[in-house]
Amino acid sequence: MLAEGPLTPNAAEPPIPDDTGRDELEREPPAATPPLTMDWAQLLAQWGTTLAIGAGALSLIVLVSLSGLLRADLIGLESLGRPGRQLLRWLGRVVPSAVTAAYRELERAARWLGLNLPAHLTPRERALELNLALPDAAPAVDTITAQYMAEQYSPYPEAANGSLAQRAWQGIQRQVWTEGLRRGVGRLIRGWSERLGSGLPK
Predict the structure, then answer these.
(1) What count of Cα atoms within 13 Å lies in the side-chain half-sphere of residue 22?
(2) How many whole angstroms separate alpha carbon 108 and alpha carbon 188?
(3) Which helix (H) or strand (E) holds 77?
(4) Cα(116)–Cα(170) distance, rounded to whole angstroms?
(5) Residues 99, 162: contact at Cβ < 8 Å?
(6) 135, 133, 141, 129: which is closest to 173 by C-alpha?
(7) Tens digit of pLDDT per residue, the chain (202 long)?
(8) What residues have CB less than 8 Å from 164, skipping those under 6 apart?
(9) Quick check: pTM over 0.85?
(10) Rounded CA separation 183/171 (Å)
(11) Which own/partner contact pairs does 95-99 have at CB distance under 8 Å and 24+ positions apart?
């Protein structure tokens, strides 16, 4: 029979319960993470505000650009179609005929192309300058000029064909604006180059 020692349990004593792992069993489970929710109303409101600000800024840019073109006489109110003609009436101004409106577009085309046409030039002389600047547009320019001269100077102004003049202008409108934009950008680049060159030490 073995002698009882400090490390040997007595058979008469109750067994010591094993509480290993009790802390894990009694520990409360972690709280469940609530699912992510999206406030669609708030998100839509933010989008709406952003879109409203963007639309307002774009409208302001368009209005400022349009005002600048009108002040520079690069476009006319009659160029804006029916709203422009109605605005002319509200302002008490004369609404030009279809022929005169097409001829005014030629005058503005000359300015858009950077041509400085003296006021004393006749319509045919002005047309010649435009034809030299845009040879491909010469037939349309001549058509508009002929209809304008018929309306203004002939004894039968009613013989002038407004539809013909308008179709002629519509046929060269894109070409005029494209060429004018190209020349305008070229003038800006040359101006910047001259400023930069003048600032360099000699």
Answers:
(1) 4
(2) 19
(3) none
(4) 23
(5) yes
(6) 141
(7) 445 555 555 555 556 555 555 555 555 556 656 555 666 677 777 777 777 777 776 665 555 554 555 554 555 666 666 777 777 678 777 788 999 999 999 999 998 898 989 989 999 999 999 999 999 999 999 999 999 999 999 999 999 999 999 999 999 999 998 998 898 888 888 888 877 776 555 5
(8) 143, 147
(9) no
(10) 20
(11) 97/151, 97/160, 97/162, 98/162, 98/163, 98/165, 98/166, 99/144, 99/147, 99/148, 99/150, 99/151, 99/160, 99/161, 99/162, 99/165
Alpha carbon distances (Å) from 158 to 97, 99, 142, 153, 155: 11, 11, 19, 11, 9
Q: Which of 107, 117, 91 is nearest to 145 (CA)?
A: 107
pLDDT in tens, 162-195: 999 999 999 999 999 899 889 888 888 888 887 7
Q: Are 144 and 103 in contact (CB under 8 A)?
A: yes
Q: What is the sign, positive or negative, of the torsion defined by CA atoms of 155, 159, 165, 166? A: positive
Decide if 158 contacts 98 (C-beta within 8 A). no
Angle at 30 between CA 24 and CA 31, to 5 degrees: 155
Q: Angle at CA 165, nearest 5°, toward 124 and 142?
A: 30
What is the Cα Rg of the chain in Å? Answer: 42
